[in-house]
Specification:
With 326 residues, the protein is α/β, with parallel strands linked by helices. Helix content is 36%, strand content 22%. The chain folds into two domains: 2-180, Rossmann fold; 192-320, Rossmann fold. It has helices spanning 7-21, 39-44, 56-68, 87-93, 97-100, 147-159, 207-221, 239-249, 264-275, 298-304, 308-320, and strands at 2-6, 25-29, 49-51, 72-79, 110-115, 140-142, 164-169, 176-180, 192-195, 200-204, 226-230, 233-235, 252-259, 285-289.
């Protein structure tokens, strides 16, 4: 039976359940296990739950070495930007070892980090850097948008024999939703149609899924049926589900919190242009952040980022346009 959980609680539940299931799962990071009252420390002890030094290079390097010996480390990195100082480990070490060893070495690590904190955290802590990782062979990237997906994708990430970057939107951490109890795994690389529709497809990632669903409600009030697709995984990307939706609706709006030219939306647009162009009845429209650092000012922050009104207007503009026959 499902029960109501907050997004953050769902992630923690998945980690605890997987640690109970598999004694090789370890969990460490900065600002963790700081007192004996820590629930994970009490449950699993300091051999499996540890505080780490303030060195992302060390944290991720240790995880790679531990994974190669048979452990399954989860590294709590808190902010995705903190990975930037350890990108050699993230994109050049962990994803390559299995390939370069001919499959003899597995690197089952989970790099858990929040991203896109649009709440006055300004330019260095509000970014969406998944474009730097989603094209790296051997590295998987997931972005759950609901509490249920947060739990299911965390379980899948921990069980995967490849390194997985698990990115959770800060703006969803206290959102609540129904989450299945007990063992629940969402396969990596399978998109989810969050809302069925017939007039237009909206593909959104992370926090933008929530905004796109709200926009779809507004469109429905005006007689427009919008289908909302959540890729959930950026690498691997479920192109088939997206293209099948475009086949049905003939129109596509892509919504991404990242700036236009460093967005997952740009990659999805390219895939649809190659694999679903003949089904498009109008040009693809992208709704992304503006090409600027996220400002500290709340009004400017709102101006830079996508919102429900921008999504609604983009959908209407696509619906008004028709492909002109050559």
């Amino acid at each position: 039976m499902p029960r109501e959980m907050m997004y953050g609680e769902a992630m923690a539940t998945a980690i605890m359940e997987e640690m109970k299931r598999d004694p090789n799962v370890i969990f460490y990071g900065q600002n963790m296990a700081m007192t004996e009252r820590d629930p994970m420390l009490k449950a699993f002890g300091r051999n499996r739950v540890r505080i780490a030094p303030i060195s992302e290079t060390a944290e991720i390097g240790i995880a790679i070495g531990a994974a190669m010996t048979g452990l399954r480390p989860i590294v709590e990195l808190w902010m995705s930007e903190f990975m930037l100082v350890a990108m050699d480990q993230v994109i050049n070490e962990a994803p390559r070892l299995r390939y370069m060893s001919g499959g003899q070495v597995k690197v089952p690590i989970v790099l858990k980090a929040g991203y896109g904190f649009a709440a006055g955290w300004a330019g260095q802590h509000s970014n969406c850097i998944y474009h730097t990782m989603m094209g790296i062979p051997g590295l998987k990237v997931v972005l759950p948008s609901t509490p249920a997906d947060a739990k299911g994708l965390m379980a899948a990430a921990i069980r995967d024999d490849n390194p997985v970057v698990y990115l959770h939107p800060y703006m969803l951490m206290i959102d609540s939703g129904e989450v299945p109890e007990g063992e629940f795994v969402v396969p990596i690389g399978i998109a989810d149609v969050k809302r069925q529709g017939t007039d237009i497809t909206i593909v959104a990632t992370g926090w933008m899924v929530k905004k796109s669903l709200a926009a779809a409600e507004q469109l429905a009030a005006e007689g427009i049926s919008a289908e909302v697709v959540d890729p959930r995984s950026l690498a691997p990307l479920d192109v088939e589900t997206i293209v099948n939706s475009v086949k049905k609706t003939g129109r596509l709006v892509l919504v991404d919190q990242a700036p236009r030219h460093s967005s997952a939306a740009a990659i999805i647009a390219a895939e649809v242009a190659e694999h679903g162009f003949e089904h498009l009845r109008a040009p693809i429209k992208m709704v992304t952040a503006l090409d600027t650092s996220i400002p500290y000012s709340e009004p400017l922050e709102n101006y830079v980022l996508p919102n429900e009104e921008k999504i609604v207007q983009a959908a209407k503009s696509v619906l008004m346009r028709q492909v002109v026959a050559a």
